[in-house]
Specification:
The structure is a single chain. This protein has about 350 residues and is α+β, with helices and mostly antiparallel strands. It has helices at about 10-35, 40-80, 95-165, 170-195, 205-220, 245-260, 295, 315-325, and strands at about 205, 225-230, 240, 265-275, 280-285, 330-335, 340-345. It folds into three domains: about 10-110, no CATH class; about 130-195, Helix Hairpins, CATH 1.10.287; about 205-345, Heat Shock Protein 90 (2-Layer Sandwich), CATH 3.30.565.10. It is built from eight helices and seven strands. The strands form two sheets. A five-stranded mixed sheet has the order 2-4-5-7-6, with helices on one face. It has a two-stranded antiparallel sheet with strand order 1-3. Helix 5 packs parallel to helix 6 (about 245-260) and helix 6 packs antiparallel against helix 8 (about 315-325).
């Protein structure tokens, strides 16, 4: 069971009380001494004792209060210089000064932990940057080493396809080969887009128009499927500085992912335009199969995919584009109920990146 703390304000008024008592004592002795001059020596001794007591109390008060304040000021100076490995020594006191010391030490511990977390995130970002740089070198090599032979293979397949009789069962194989060639081309294209990013060419335009164009293209993909794409625009939304081509690419990627998540069961994709946190918001939600919680943290990693025919680069590229717009993508998902992706874009880009419309 903890002991009861003593309020330091009580300590502060203690000298005043002692001075008053000493004055009362001296006054009493003085009154007596007027009738008995022989007690002058006693009066002098008593007065000196009272002054000595007050001096001792004031010194003790300075030791109890002033020294912790001086120490705290010194430690704050060290913190201002960048040293977070500091702590005050009076935190074990059982009064309000001790409470101040404990709060200060706890705050410093939190700051140290926050700095360590920031340094860890910085190392992660540097590792990611190195990974993307390596990816760029790989992509450049792949473009030359794969695409040229692939074009030759595609040409040969076209010739073989034309020469085959219409009843030949090999025509189905030729069709599969064409699809595989197209898949390889998509992988190479996405890889080059990821590895060789182009800075956004932003201008002040209507975000509703950009979103509407992406929705129109996505609707063409679901004409023969039991999937509905709904769009709720925001006519009063201020114009947003963005690269309409790049944001169109981001939204189309999210829409096609949503469609693929519902190809078997069907369902509804809902696109809502609005604003949140001083940003323009585009929400893309579906009623598909959802994403398991353990995979949510990995879906933006390059080459990570849950689809058999996916490149695993679409969401990685989408996040990079949005981050270059100084925005962010947020995602939530419930298995069996669907997923929500929200793209948040600032209404205005930094002046250095903005292009006059």
């Amino acid at each position: 069971m903890g002991s009861v703390g003593v309020n330091w304000q009580l300590k502060a008024i203690l000298p005043v009380g002692l001075v008053l008592l000493a004055g009362l004592f001296v006054f009493t002795l003085a009154t007596v001494s007027l009738r008995d001059p022989e007690r002058h020596a006693v009066l002098i001794v008593a007065g000196t004792g009272a002054v000595a007591i007050c001096a001792v109390v004031i010194i003790a008060l300075a030791y109890v209060i002033q020294r912790p304040m001086v120490e705290l000021q010194e430690k704050i100076g060290l913190v201002s210089a960048g040293n977070l490995d500091v702590a005050v020594s009076f935190s074990n006191r059982n009064d309000e000064i001790g409470d101040l010391g404990r709060n200060f030490n706890h705050m410093m511990q939190q700051l140290r932990e926050s700095r360590e977390e920031i340094e860890r995130l910085h190392r992660t970002q540097m590792s990611r940057a190195e990974h993307l740089a390596t990816l760029g070198e790989l992509a450049a090599g792949l473009a030359h080493e794969i695409r040229n032979p692939l074009a030759g293979i595609a040409g040969v397949i076209e010739i073989i396809g034309r020469d085959l009789p219409s009843t030949s069962p090999a025509r189905a194989v030729v069709k599969d080969v064409r699809l595989e060639i197209a898949q390889i081309n998509r992988i190479l294209t996405d890889l080059l887009e990821t590895a060789r990013p182009h800075p956004p060419q932003v201008c002040l335009t209507n975000l509703n128009t950009t979103v509407e164009h992406a929705v129109m293209l996505a609707r063409q993909q679901v004409l023969s499927k039991p999937i509905k794409i709904e769009l709720q625009m925001a006519p009063d939304l201020p114009e947003v500085e963005h690269d309409s081509d790049q944001i169109h690419q981001v939204l189309l990627n999210l829409l096609l992912n949503a469609v693929q998540a519902m190809e078997v069961t069907g369902g509804t994709v809902r696109v809502e335009i609005g604003s949140r946190d001083d940003c323009a918001s585009v929400m893309v939600s579906d009623t598909g199969r959802g994403i398991p919680p353990q995979l949510l943290s990995s879906i933006f990693r390059p080459f990570f995919t849950t689809k058999g025919n996916g490149t695993g680069l679409g969401l990685s590229l989408a996040r990079r584009i949005v981050e270059e717009h100084h925005g962010r993508i947020e995602v939530s998902s419930v298995v069996g109920k669907g997923s929500k992706f929200e793209v948040l874009l600032p209404f205005q880009m930094p002046a250095a990146q903005a292009v006059a419309s």
